[in-house]
Amino acid sequence: MAAFVRNRRALVGLGMVAVIAAFCFIGPLLYRTDQVTVRLDLANLPPGTGNPLGTDASGYDVLGRMMAGGRSSLELGFAVALTTTVIGTLYGAVAGYLGGIVDAVMMRVIDTFLAIPGIVLLLIMVSMITPTLWSIVLLLSLLSWLGAARLVRGEVLALRTREFVLAARMMGGTGGRIVLRHLVPNAAGVIIVSGTFTIADSILTLSALSFLGLGLPPPHADWGTMLSAGLNSLYDGYWWLVYPPALILITTVVAFNLIGDAVHDALDVRQQRP
Amino acid sequence: MPPLLEVRNLTTHIRTRRGTVRAVDDVSFTLEAGETLGLVGESGCGKSMTGLSLMGLLPPGGAMVGDSSVALDGRELVGLPERDLRRVRGNDIAMVFQDPMTSLDPTKTIGHQVAEGVLLHRGCSRAEAADRAAEVLGLVGLPHPRERLKDYPHQLSGGLRQRVLIAMALANEPRVLIADEPTTALDVTIQAQILALLADLRARLGMAMILITHDMGVTAGHTDRVNVMYAGRIAESTGTDRLFHGMRHPYTQSLLASVPRLDQDPGKELPTIPGMPPDLTDPPGGCRFAGRCRYATDRCRTDEPELTGSDQHRYACWHPTDGPLPPSATAAVPRATEAAAPAVHDRPLLEARGLVREFPVRGARIPGRGRRVVHALSGVSLELAPGETFGLVGESGCGKTTLGRLLVGLDRPDTGTVTLDGTDLGLLRGRELRRRRRDLQMMFQDPFSSLDPRMRVGGILREPLQIQGIGTAREQKARVAELLAEVGLPERGAELYPHEFSGGQRQRIGLARALALTPKLIVADEPVSALDVSVRAQVLNLMNRLQASHGLSYIVISHDLAVVRYLADRIGVMYLGRMVEVGSADDIHLRAAHPYTAGLLKAVPVPDPQLERAKLGTGISGELPSPVDPPSGCRFRTRCPLARERCADEEPALRLFGAGHTAACHFPLQQPLPDTPAKAATDASA
């Protein structure tokens, strides 16, 4: 952990995430805007007094909308990372620990899922149902636990031959205990790294879906929808509809990736120590 | 004429995050052509770093400082530009590394790897380099070298890979060969072969050799002079004979005394060196050994001794000793009761009958051949009395670890039974089996992997109690403190994580964990082979003491015959999945009946230069055959000097050679007792 704290990138990443989270969750309390009522009379106003970042085609305040959009993005990112990590970790740890035929079958299930192109599947699913934040969380989780499971399985395969696992069996420990008490904590490193990257990936995927017009339906706000709407008006010179949401999206993704990288490096250092 | 290699004031510092490690501190020595110099000491004493410094191959952050000087034939190497150094490396000075498994590139053929050095230094054509590669591979005893040039490292056994590494080092006929623990990763039988090869090559090619080793037996047999290193400095430097019989430095004395020898009196505790080597980021003032020395005085703690003495014998000590520690210096090993002796007993604690375990070979099935299997165990029986220690020895791959796992119920035999106190372990399932585990515990080899790095020591020691539901939280805590005290660790150790302990301390924690459930039997798989010699003695003494106070039975699995001889009452010798000889420790060591046992014993290096040099031959030639296709009849016949036709046709039965002494051989070295067919012999050994 000391190496993690000493890592400059980690601190920068954490700081950025903290600022963005404060912006999205505390911001609306200090800067109240109406993100529900369409006000065509206030549409496409350039930045100025009253609307620091202008308004969009429906007359929503862009700054306020970025806050609202960020909330759903962050909520989604964390929710997906959490479910993915829990499911993927347990699945991967069980497969890796049991090994043999069970492992082979469990891994072929994953391979099958992975063979389906994720974005296509998402598009089909989203076009069949009316997406809500939580249905998208579910869909994204369904797609992204596969990677986490594979990572954790690989780690557990290496860990389970370690003698402390044998020692736990010698004491009469059950498989469940070995997985939860010994294997998962020792795989915590890769789990945290993969979870952090999942947050960034999910936020990006949601934005991509929204950009394609298949994201959260109005009046829900999110950065992808804002981008997609703004892009149509870019030729009209309404730059404030595109750059702010693009910037905050990139910043968020970079921040989480910085943290993920830093955790990864910190763990590497720890492994070098005898 | 200057000496071939002259090292003066060599000082190597390595910068790390924790500070500067003074790995080598003011080391001077010379090496003459045709001579072998031993560098011995515990791990971390700077011997490997000295070797790497000579080659100019220091790790990142490492540098030779001060007026360090390494002169080869009068030519200074320190400060030479990298381009010129590369010409020296692998050409004038070559190195053989410790681990033959990781020192070869798995993606290149061995021919390519040996030829690479020739191409670099001789500027010849590829064909000529390949010729030279075949030539040196033949020189190091690789059978059919020309055909094997195209082999990849994974197709060779460990012993053959080590020969390839030596061939790589020799390809350019270096004048100095640095061998860094060249046989530590190998079995004793292969070790003897490799050492004999190195000695032979040195004589034939007129090389000088620096042999870096921690094994005093290897030192005794294969060096002319020895530098004993401690904490980055030379503690003592003299001829090999003199070092073993007239050492002056207390460290040398303790180091030699703490090595269990084959002729060790098992009734005496091993002398130990207390404590640990000092931290080289901040070495103590005065003599660096003072903190662990039995003769240390105030002067030792304040003034640093210089190397003094004659040219033939230099040592750095204020209170030099004279010769080895007398054997009377240590206490007797505590014995529980007279019953602990392998006398007549009613019922064995543990009984294994006809254990067979086979593992399928992974990979593609060969059509028409059926499923191929590794014959790990082919019908092994043994018995263990309460309070007894049974030693299992044999080369790696002989099935001793598999047997250990079957005995503690970590794995099940294909056929055969393991009975503990009258209960057949094979019939136990689930909860019942988990409850019975408390009687059977295991002590592991690697102190770095046997403790969960994410748990505090207190948690590690409580876990068995929690699993078995023994005691309340408060009682468990008290028990943890008790266990720590028993293995000689402070109570606050419970709050620390495993990585905060040294290897020897961790092995103690592992032993404490095994003791937590007050088992009847502990299977110790190579309990000390990952430890330094001085720490080894501490752990062995502890095992003996705990056996006496708890009435434990041990099964000690080790490739180190001296360790097994020291701990065990009875010894079983395994070869390729079979038990070839069982007997009391004395039977095995003094009256070995099986040629394999005799050969194995002969291969063990003895820390006595006279005895070691008087040995003829290397004990056992060749390598362990594949357990997938074991030889017919007697499995040892392919390497046996006495093998005849009958050995291939007929499997030898166990015959009785004395009370409790059986061996399976058609042409044994001892006279068997008359008329003892296999069945009777097995019963008699019961």
Fold blueprint:
The complex is a heterodimer of chains A (274) and B (686).
Chain A: H1 2-6, H2 8-25, H3 27-30, H4 62-98, H5 100-115, H6 118-128, H7 133-159, H8 163-170, H9 175-186, H10 188-211, H11 223-232, H12 243-272
Helix pairs in contact in A: 2-4, 2-12, 4-5, 4-7, 4-9, 4-10, 4-12, 5-7, 6-7, 7-10, 8-9, 10-11, 10-12, 11-12
Chain B: E1 5-16, E2 19-31, E3 36-40, H1 47-55, E4 62-64, E5 69-72, E6 75-76, H2 82-88, E7 93-96, H3 110-122, H4 126-139, H5 145-148, H6 158-170, E8 176-180, H7 188-205, E9 208-213, H8 216-222, E10 225-230, E11 233-239, H9 240-245, H10 250-257, H11 298-302, E12 308-309, E13 313-315, E14 350-360, E15 373-384, E16 389-393, H12 400-407, E17 415-420, E18 423-424, H13 430-436, E19 440-443, H14 457-468, H15 473-486, H16 503-515, E20 521-525, H17 533-550, E21 553-557, H18 561-567, E22 570-575, E23 578-584, H19 585-590, H20 595-603, H21 609-614, H22 645-649, E24 654-658, E25 661-664, H23 678-685
Parallel strand pairs in B: 3-9, 3-10, 7-8, 8-9, 16-21, 16-22, 19-20, 20-21
Antiparallel strand pairs in B: 1-2, 1-4, 1-5, 5-6, 10-11, 11-13, 12-13, 14-15, 14-17, 17-18, 22-23, 23-25, 24-25
- DSSP helix count of chain A? 12
* Biggest sheet statistics of chain B: 8 strands, mixed
Low-confidence stretches of chain B: 337-343, 678-686
Average pLDDT, all residues of chain A: 82
Percent in helix of chain B: 25-40%
Count of DSSP strands of chain B = 25
CATH homologous superfamily heading of chain A: MetI-like
On the 0-100 scale, what is the average pLDDT of chain B? 85
How much helix is in the residues of chain A?
over 70%
Give the structural class of chain B.
Answer: alpha/beta
CATH class of chain A: Mainly Alpha
